[in-house]
Amino acid sequence: MSSSTNPTVRDVTDRIRERSHGLRSAYLSRLAEVRSRDRGSDRMGCANVAHAVAGIPANDKFRVVTERAPNIGIVTAYNDMLSAHAPYQGYPDIIKNEARSLGATAQVAGGVPAMCDGVTQGTPGMELSLFSRDLIAMSTAVALTHDMFDAALMLGVCDKIVPGLLIGALHFGHLPTVFVPAGPMPSGLSNSAKSKVREQAAQGLVGRQGLLDAEMAAYHTLGTCTFYGTANSNQMLLEAMGLHVPGTAFIQPGDAMRETLTREAVRTVLGKAGEAEFNCPPIGEMVDERCIVNAMVALLATGGSTNHLIHWVAVARAAGILIDWDDFSKLSDVVPLLTRVYPNGSADVNEFQASGGPGLVIGELVDAGLMHADVLTVRSGGIREFANIPSLAGESEEKRLQWTPGAALQNDAVTRTVADPFSATGGLKLLSGNLGRSVIKVSSVPDDRHVIEAPARVFDSQAALQKAFTAGELERDVVCVVRWQGPQANGMPELHKLTPPLSVLQGKGFRVALVTDGRMSGASGKIPAAIHVSPEAAAGGPLAKVRDGDLIRLDSVAGTLAVLLPEDEWAAREVATLSEAQRIADGHGLGRELFAGMRRNALTAEEGACSWL
Question: For 93-152, what is each residue's pLDDT tens digit?
């Protein structure tokens, strides 16, 4: 570890390494054992090999079996329900073509499910969302367990898809693996204008047609949604971990570079990118404790999605690494906020890209010693290579990729330097107290709302809160407690539909906050929200003791979350239980009963809500 690394970053990394020593050593030992085997078509029985290559062209069969050429497994999350994933339809043909040009082969090893949280927000389908991550990880394992591959390419962008692919890939950590993005859609109706219409609709000032017109103007074509939510945070973290071709995260699907960058991903995973050949390292070796810390730092520096305080705990665990919310909190104390991208500002990811994008952020963090420079990446140039910007150079017939240092700061309303940040600390805070442990994203919360003290109003569902808002029952200072929303209760759905009504109340001058054992969308921001409360109510957590009228203090300055009651009175308070009728209702319909085993086995939010441990 470099001596120039920030002391807190170094200390957090050292503690993670020490905490993870036994688990990580066992993981690396298993990787070494798998890597020592003969390649698949040499190791397997003849019938196995024949099945594996029966569906590919004769020339490819010859290469795999006789020439013993590298065979790349493609795991794709393509479907055209997700605008971000629709561009992937033609990627396998591009990848196979490029592989053949390099004397290699590629096969679609398998597809993974990919649900759109934008479609399922506020519906029963959202209760499958978090666990779809683990299902995607298992589907990735099913694809790669054909065990005929020398490398892998992961095609995925959105919320649970990238963490799921990454968890699955790390369980096949012996394979060199590159993630292949597809890019954001061009900017449509601005995110701030869209949110304004949503607030007006919540007040009855805009009808369904007006709201639909606004939403259709915002989400209008192929590509990732343009706000800095979980999907785009995924892409930022993959850049910071060195798992992309450098600089590919936010190149739009229609850009001339997009296909060239996809072909470059093939060259990279085969170790043929650039002037000299190199070995693309196995992903299990690349993703060590330094790599995980780099991802955490990038998340904090960009005010990224709170979902990653769950997902990256699970990702790290898949690599034999143990992290927790204290690690995020300690890093947040020293990592400055370098971006203002919606919901933490008015800019979208296209404006972020135009103002330096991930390359600028990574360059600033590495130079300041806030990211580990001495890490492995999919390329030979290390993490500093990810501070460069790709472009096409040469004549139209022979255009080639080149990387140049990121341009000087373009727009200081969108991106800043470490010397002049938006904030000296990161955008996430750990809260603890007699209500449990929780996290809050403060990067977009107004400064005068960092501390809220108000009476509680308790709800057992987000629908109940919306009903109370519509009835005018929340026109006052209030802390809305929404419980029974954790992993074991109903799969921990995002409660994004609560943002417009709570924003309306805050806009009227009321001091409001949300406290919940559920999640908020990566696009939520300006309402103080203590989320992921652990232990959850369904596990007997303190939220099950809260009653209407209890005075609650959410203090993101001091890092506390508490009911203001005498200790003995609070200790004697009876713990409520979810009604059997509600439990049955939450567990059935639209496929929810199929996920009952995952709900039973889920760990806490702070442990990554993993259902596979």
Answer: 999 999 999 999 999 999 999 999 989 988 888 999 999 999 999 999 999 999 999 999
DSSP string, 372-421: -SS---SSTT-GGGGGEEEEEES-GGG-EEEEEEPPSP--TTTB--TTS-
Looking at the chain, how many residues does it have? 613
- Cβ burial 78-113 (10 Å sphere, 16+ → b, else e): bbeebbbbbbbeebbebbbebbbeeebbbbbbbbbe
- In one-letter notation, the amino acid at residue 139 is S
Alpha carbons 227 and 347: distance in angstroms, whole number: 8
Global pTM reads 0.96
What is the reported pLDDT for 16?
98
Helix spans in 7-57 (H): 7-35, 40-43, 46-53
Over residues 239-245, the mean pLDDT reads 98
CATH T-level topology, domain 428-607: Glucose Oxidase; domain 1 (3.50.30)
Distance CA 183, CA 566 (A): 53
**What's the CA gap between 487 and 127, in Å, rounded?**
9
- Closest listed residue to residue 173, CA positions, set 374, 315, 324: 315
**Does residue 408 have a pLDDT over 70?**
no
> Is residue 256 predicted with pLDDT exceeding 70?
yes
Closest by CA to 182, choosing from 134, 217, 147, 231, is 231
Burial class of residue 23 in the structure, from the number of CB atoms within 10 Å of its CB (0-12 exposed, 13-18 middle, 19+ buried): middle
CA 174, CA 151: separation in Å to the nearest integer?
Answer: 9
Which residues are known binding-site members for [4Fe-4S] cluster? 158, 225
| Interatomic CA distance for residues 369 and 252, integer angstroms | 31
DSSP state of 435: T
Position 426 pLDDT exceeds 90: no
In the predicted structure, residue 419 carries a pLDDT above the cut 60: yes
User: For residue 46, what are the contacts with CB-CB under 8 A and spacing of at least 6?
Assistant: none
Contact of 242 with 383, CB cutoff 8 Å: yes
Burial 495-508 (b: 16+ CB within 10 A, else e): bbbbbbbbbbbbee
List, as residue ranges, the binding site. Answer: 158, 225
* Interstrand relation of 177-180 and 478-482 (parallel, antiparallel or unpaired): unpaired
How is the chain split among helix, strand and coil, in percent rounded to 5?
A: 45, 15, 40
Nearest-angstrom CA–CA distance, 306 and 493: 13
pLDDT of residue 585: 79
Q: pLDDT tens digits, residue range 210-234? A: 999 999 999 999 999 999 999 999 9
- Whether 361 and 415 have beta carbons less than 8 Å apart is answered as yes
